[in-house]
UniProtKB/TrEMBL annotation:
It comes from the Bacteria. It is found in: Cytoplasm. This is Ribonuclease H. Keywords: Cytoplasm, Endonuclease, Hydrolase, Magnesium, Metal-binding, Nuclease. Its EC number is 3.1.26.4. One of its GO terms (molecular function) is nucleic acid binding. It comes from Paludisphaera borealis.
């Protein structure tokens, strides 16, 4: 990636994805972090033997944010509406209700609350904006994250 001298020094772009073979089943997560001002790029991926697609989508964002060493402006780019809507719309209400979600007239526990709480902690450490992209539609970094996440769970399956 070429450095962009006009980009803010504290801006990073975090591209994430999760994948699962079965739901539940073996799953993988991945992220790509870009620092436009310097042109630096780093990525990572991982896998779990028994998980869900939503947990892997969350894990990609969590791992990417957790890798940052100082407060940044972060643009999170995800193809997961679960993650995007969760951060932008649902989480404030869940927190207000003690991590409960409304289902009809009753309150039920938020699914994956352990990951949502960890994500909430990380979001307070940065200035985050979320962008939703359509998956499998040619977005270069989203496609790369998808390949990395799939490869991570396939490698896990091969090594078991």
């Amino acid at each position: 990636m070429e450095p962009d001298a006009s980009a803010p020094a504290d801006l990073v772009k975090l591209f994430t994805d999760g994948a699962c073979s079965g739901n539940p089943g073996p799953g993988g997560w991945a992220y790509i972090l870009q620092h436009p001002a310097s042109g630096q790029v780093r990525d990572a991926s991982g896998a779990e033997p028994e998980t869900t697609n939503n947990r892997m989508e969350l894990a990609g964002v969590i791992e990417g944010l957790a890798s940052l060493k100082r407060r940044c402006q972060v643009e999170v780019v995800t193809d997961s509406q679960y993650v995007a809507k969760g951060i932008k719309e649902w989480m404030p209400n869940w927190k207000r209700r003690g991590w409960q979600r409304k289902e009809g007239n009753t309150l039920k526990p938020v699914m994956n609350v352990d990951l949502w709480k960890r994500l909430d902690e990380l979001l307070t450490q940065h200035d985050v904006r979320v962008t939703h992209v359509l998956g499998h539609r040619g977005h270069a970094e989203n496609e790369a994250c998808d390949r990395m996440a799939v490869e991570a769970y396939k490698a896990l399956k091969r090594n078991r």
